[in-house]
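Revision sheet: structure tokens.
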Amino acid sequence: MAKKPSTSDGEWLSALALALVETGFRNSRLEELHAGVSPDTAVGDYSDVKVVTPYGEIAWSRVSRLDDEEMKALMIEVVDRVYTMLTHPEPFMRLAGGPALEQAAA
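Predicted:
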């Protein structure tokens, strides 16, 4: 049976998860893909939002927000970032000016 993590283990894992997501994913090319104008909806569920193309309109709920090339580039970058963090964690041990992970576990 797996050992239940102690509170300090849980805090350390939470801090590590935050570092992995923030550095490995959030601060990646995802920021570029997130930039730009976001549509607004008058009805609240975006059923009134359409994307107009030369080939017709596409309902917002059916629009792909990333094309295959963007998704591939994003995944390669995220894998590289997470691999770097796992193999060289020292520079990432301090989260946004907060305590080092080993201090958060204490």
